[in-house]
């Protein structure tokens, strides 16, 4: 296929590994091997400990990252923008309704033109297929800043947060670790399942039967779990999932783009609230995770979200450190 006089790689070609072994794009946790994932965590830990200004301050000097967002964002946008700035590069926020895309310019033309200006593009959109289209047409790396299907950058920061608590950065850090996710089987749940399978974790997901995680992701992750020693459990009883867990995780019951389903979702999800009662099922040392934004009194009580076991602010901060690691890898100047 040709566009604007140049040939476009066929679907999937853009995902070819680079010289460093990483895929061209980061569209899902499944784009990473286990060792690449732990390499990102090691870099994130080093960058987190590196003083500012310091040796990393010019690491991405002269490079520009675009952030093409079709949905609102606080953490993802600001942590990528601040991360680029802290590494000496620049970020451009491109809400989709402010560029010619909103007046009918094609995604392909936009991706090709932006690739002439930018060194990488973070895309937040609805369908995973749309993200894949960006990746196919852009000649620069495309990073998933959240789709309806998955939220890989979030989950990498979440696993990094768990590792920090364990103070063990070895590849067996998650063996025997039980993470229970309760609520909607959404993008966050899907990426948790993928990451859990890759790292040998025990992931227990409790959700209503009509709001289950993506069956394709569950199936592929269970195959991977067979190789890594992970367990992927999908149940409907939140108490069973939370039993003896090392971490409890929840997310909103109505994700961006599902607002019209809110009343129905609320009704189905009430038994899945992360509250003090559920927390007592987990280990006394269990941590509480939430990707934020949170709705206190819906998917989580204020007492749990703001309580002593909650690590949500550390988790939000770690978006910055892990994404800085991602940027050094994907923008072509790998941290040693
Ligand atoms: N957790 C997360 O992705 O937050 P934002 O929607 O604010 O980016
Ligand atoms: N599941 C949520 C995550 C927000 C960070 C959503 O997609 O809206």
Give a nutshell description of this structure:
The protein has 12 helices and 11 strands. The protein has 336 residues and is of the alpha/beta class. Residues 1-17 have low confidence and may be disordered.
Would you write up a description of this structure?
This protein has 336 residues and is α/β, with parallel strands linked by helices. The chain folds into two domains: 2-150 and 318-330, Rossmann fold, CATH 3.40.50.1370; 154-316, 3-Layer(aba) Sandwich (Rossmann fold). The chain has helices spanning 34-49, 75-86, 107-117, 128-137, 152-166, 187-199, 215-228, 238-242, 262-269, 276-279, 302-305, 312-330; strands spanning 2-3, 6-7, 64-69, 90-95, 120-124, 142-144, 178-182, 202-206, 231-235, 247-250, 287-290. A five-stranded parallel sheet has the order 9-8-7-10-11. The radius of gyration is 20 Å and the shape is globular. The structure holds phosphoric acid mono(formamide)ester and norvaline. Norvaline (NVA) binds next to α6.
Largest sheet: 5 strands, parallel
Order of helical and strand elements: EEHEHEHEHEHEHEHEHEHHEHH
Which homologous superfamily in CATH is the superfamily of the largest domain?
Aspartate/ornithine carbamoyltransferase
Whole-number average pLDDT? 94
């Amino acid at each position: 296929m040709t566009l604007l006089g140049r040939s476009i790689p066929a679907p999937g070609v853009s995902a070819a590994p680079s010289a460093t072994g990483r895929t061209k794009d980061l569209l899902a946790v499944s784009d990473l091997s286990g060792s690449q994932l732990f390499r990102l965590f090691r870099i994130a830990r080093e960058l987190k400990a590196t003083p500012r200004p310091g040796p990393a301050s010019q690491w991405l000097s002269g490079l520009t990252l675009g952030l093409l967002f079709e949905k609102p964002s606080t953490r993802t946008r600001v942590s990528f923008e601040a991360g680029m700035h802290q590494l000496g590069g620049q970020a451009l926020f491109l809400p989709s309704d402010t560029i010619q895309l909103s007046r009918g310019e094609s995604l392909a033309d936009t991706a090709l033109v932006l690739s002439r200006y930018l060194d990488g593009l973070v895309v937040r959109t609805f369908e995973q297929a749309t993200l894949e289209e960006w990746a196919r047409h852009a000649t620069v790396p495309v990073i998933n800043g959240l789709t309806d299907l998955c939220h890989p950058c979030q989950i990498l920061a979440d696993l990094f947060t768990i590792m920090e608590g364990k103070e063990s950065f070895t590849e067996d850090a998650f063996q025997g670790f039980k993470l229970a996710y309760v609520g909607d089987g959404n993008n966050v749940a899907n990426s948790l399942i993928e990451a859990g399978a890759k790292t040998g974790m025990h992931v227990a997901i409790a959700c209503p039967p009509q709001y289950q995680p993506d069956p394709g992701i569950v199936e592929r992750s269970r195959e991977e779990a067979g190789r890594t020693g992970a367990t992927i459990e999908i149940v409907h009883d939140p108490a069973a999932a939370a039993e003896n867990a090392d971490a409890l995780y929840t997310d909103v019951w109505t994700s961006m783009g599902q607002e019209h389903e809110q009343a129905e979702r609320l009704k189905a999800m009430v038994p899945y609230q992360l509250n003090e009662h559920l927390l007592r099922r987990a280990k006394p040392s269990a941590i509480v995770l939430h990707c934020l934004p949170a709705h206190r009194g819906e998917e989580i009580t204020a007492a749990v979200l703001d309580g002593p076991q909650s690590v949500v602010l550390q988790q939000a901060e770690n978006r910055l450190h892990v994404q800085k690691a991602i940027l050094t890898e994907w923008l072509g100047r790998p941290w040693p």
